[in-house]
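Treating backbone geometry as a discrete language has practical consequences that deserve illustration. Part of our work consisted of pairing the sequence of a single chain with a tokenised description of its backbone. We regard such an encoding as a compact summary of how the chain folds. The amino acid sequence and the backbone structure tokens for this protein are reproduced below.
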Amino acid sequence: MTPKVFTKLLGLFVLLLAFHTMVMELVFHRLVEHTAGATLRLLGREALLSGLIALAVVLPVAAWVARRVSARLQQVVVFARRIASGDLSARFAPSSEDDLSAMEAALNQTAEQLGRSFAEIESRRQELAAMIDSMQEAVVAITPEGMVRWSNAVMHRIAGTPIHAGRPLVHSVRDPEVLACVKGALENREVRFGRASSLAAGRVFEINATPLPEGGALVVLHDVTRVESAEKSRRDFIANVSHELRTPLTSIQGYVETLIEDPHPRPETNREFLGVILKNATRMNRLTEDLLALASVESPDFRLSLQVMRASALVQDAIESLGGIVVDSEVELEHAGAPDDLVLADPDTMNQVFGNLVENALKYGKAGKKIRIGARLIENEVEFKVQDFGPGIASEHLGRIFERFYRVDKARSRDSGGTGLGLAIVQHIVLAHGGRIWAESELGAGATFYFTLPLAPVAQQPLGSIQ
């Protein structure tokens, strides 16, 4: 652009000077025609010579002015290119007061305003990106061509592979439900809903694909795994309770109908039938009590009355209070030793824990003729155990025995009046104390149930107990 500007300005000066020379020549020519003498001719030559001298002086000045203006304009071009490339820090250096300086100042002001506007836009973009990344839902925006426009961090974690902008969604997400919802939103311009179960192992997502006004679609994936699990647990719980209640109710109904239909029942039959009815009614009452106990320990309002107690005292109290349960079963209840370390425990719920564990040992380990209760100190907690010497529990059952209504031997549990809730209640109580619970077993060698209680903080221990 510099040569063009220079050439145009220089050409303008040349034309002006040429025009001036022609005018002067014509004027002097006419003067020469009407005026005789050497003086006029000499004057004409001097005028022509002065014009040539002026031309010689003006040409360098014109070139200098043209180059200076061209350089200033070139700076404007460089400035515009820097702004177009995103360099909003470009500025003109202060110069003399002229028309170009006013233009440069206006351009500087425009660049500053653009910089502030872009900084504000970038700040809002970062805030929006942070908000989207902090969402629990996975979000991905799709272009009208089916390419990924952007996605949040949750979507990256769910997909398991990087999701690159500008690439087709199918390269990162293979779930057919997600792809079908995206296709429907893009092609039909309507909101599509669905459920994805193969996007991530063991997780279920609700899909919401919404078309965007400018084209493309916004896909939101909401994790409903916990909701699904809770709903399944609720259905299973209701089904199990219904089943557990139906069996004794059916038995009671059948025996009562038999008694009613028999006009002359024998006393022995009446006594036998009433005994069966009482047994089933007792079983229903036990189930109701366990359901209430489970509801209590699972409630958010469940609170423990924690006290500082010696581990040895907890074990001794359990053996003394449960001695009456085993006295008629020909099973010996042994004390396996316990430390005197202090723990935080609720005495009432601990009696319930030991009671349920001992009853469970009686049901499944009665053949061993012996149950041991003991404890030992491990690091910052005390580990308690209830051990039987019966047939033991198969390894495939150990991970599920603390589930509600789960039974290793359903027939034996029903015969012994078990509800399948005892170990679930124990687990909730131990966890509420801040402890852990688990079971270990070997077939033919009995089973041992362990649980831990944290040691009492020194600040809560009685002064006499501090050594």
